[in-house]
């Protein structure tokens, strides 16, 4: 017959030697277990003993257990509590995990195995939360970075922009001009030949010369080289015709 009491006492002594300050006996009323037997609590942190707690997330777990009459041939009574920073939903998940492992380790002292499993779960959970926080911080940092937007500047895009800009500038200038200036028709450009045939040349030669008249006429008339060449040919042709007519008239007399 297995001496369950002796196995239980040996396990308690081993846990006290290994866990030291992290292991303590508590009153059954504080355990949350439905028992009046002796209850024990193991405080579990995600970091190792040589790590500074101030540099890690402040989470801490309490694993509470009590030996049943036939332990280790039957599972111990188990409970988990949050000492600091562990949500209730996570505690429920952990308790179910430990109860399954206890059923798999029947026949041997298993409390230290359960403590190690709980600490491993807490470390993984802590690392996952820390990773999520780091990811959020990285996203915030990315949002703070100003990223330039728009298409790269090339010769074609610059020329297209300049054309649009000049069109907009011309439109703005047109808005600032008086309506009379916009509605007035532009003076038609007069060639030298048209000016000569219109009789303005004769009027100009008969008109008295006044100050500033040359400047005004120069502003009204725009002579091109081609116009002068055409005018010279026309005038020569006109002169030859008139001279021939005069000579014929004299011969007739």
Automatic annotation (TrEMBL):
Record SMART domains: RWD (SM00591)
Q: Where is the composition biased (Low complexity)?
A: 242-253
Biased composition, Acidic residues: where in the chain? Answer: 212-235
**Coiled-coil ranges per the record?**
none
CDD domains documented for this protein: RWD_GCN2
| PROSITE patterns the record matches | RWD (PS50908)
Region spans: Disordered: 197-253
Q: Where is the RWD domain?
A: 10-125
Query: Superkingdom of this entry's organism?
Result: Eukaryota
Q: What is this protein called?
A: RWD domain-containing protein
Which organism does this record belong to? Escallonia herrerae
Q: What is the lineage of its organism?
A: Eukaryota, Viridiplantae, Streptophyta, Embryophyta, Tracheophyta
